[in-house]
Structures
1.
Amino acid sequence: ETGVTQSPTHLIKTRGQQVTLRCSSQSGHNTVSWYQQALGQGPQFIFQYYREEENGRGNFPPRFSGLQFPNYSSELNVNALELDDSALYLCAIKGGDKIATEQYFGPGTRLTVT
Amino acid sequence: GENVEQHPSTLSVQEGDSAVIKCTYSDSASNYFPWYKQELGKGPQLIIDIRSNVGEKKDQRIAVTLNKTAKHFSLHITETQPEDSAVYFCAASRGNRDDKIIFGKGTRLHILP
């Protein structure tokens, strides 16, 4: 068990709506990343937060945004949902100040957009 | 752009035999190569990783090899067991604080009884 939790586990939304997904860990980790995993594909990097600031972003539009809180929990917000946003959304945590540390994933939130 | 290619997409092996999954990467600045196992309904689980200053790493029945010159790395699973059935992902990263992990498309491994 990674100790990373995500909520909700499943979610169904309608095109054009907005959604907020949440991620937390049992112990504080100062870096959290979010990934989108479409069916049958590998996870794709959305963005990363380090000490409450975004410090890396993948090829995703601005309607994907996030927050990291002082307790290191995190949110992923997606506005104006599109059908292609249907996917498993994963958060991953890594801790410490090592240059290259392992990332540990949560179980994901399955988002379906109809 | 950065890319990780993974082969094969599906692999079936007899229980007890070995399985090999191969990956190539395009970003020559990559220096950290994790492998993840993903079971149905779960997030990816880190099973082993290797850094660019090492050519090979082994952990019980799992081993990884890295050829930085050729930009190839491989996962070897020996004495396969039914619980090894899952989707396996290779990945590459530059290993900086703001690094992102670039994943391959995955290999679905079936262990046949």
2.
Amino acid sequence: ILNVEQSPQSLHVQEGDSTNFTCSFPSSNFYALHWYRWETAKSPEALFVMTLNGDEKKKGRISATLNTKEGYSYLYIKGSQPEDSATYLCAFIGNAGNMLTFGGGTRLMVKP
Amino acid sequence: DADVTQTPRNRITKTGKRIMLECSQTKGHDRMYWYRQDPGLGLRLIYYSFDVKDINKGEISDGYSVSRQAQAKFSLSLESAIPNQTALYFCATSDRIGLAGVNEQFFGPGTRLTVL
């Protein structure tokens, strides 16, 4: 069983704050790393799929970086808004597998 | 209309009962997945299917079975439900372009199952 860890488990920030959280994954046999955003009572939705060491991806105020050599990815949210409140999930796939292994998620709550 | 639908959305059942959760998709994707979510544990893969005649066990397949009746339908069964199968269940799909790992997954709305 692969170990995919996310930290922190939960995070409270004020509206306007910028924030970031971490996904750690096995650094050997890396194939891809996914980030999903999951709002309460809704379906998880893909934010990014990252495959190359040094990848940086951006969607609006949300961006992500990838370091496959050391086995981590950061997700950044600039100027958090209440609508950013959600659980952010990362998922790892190694090059020998067909299955995503998800981390436990970081639950972000943005206070107005 | 949603691209990935799940029925039922909520279900309460008793220990020992047989339960079927159904998933349908209109995205035309070949690949379908069943996950369960428990608080603090993220999503764990139960079974996946890359084609109508293809069924593969995931991380936690014990106590579950699946049926891929058509490209658009993938059902999950609990033959004899037990309380520790109480969870939120998600169906997901992905495209078949390239290897599975590079294609984002599209999730259904989830089925909340409670086994008493």
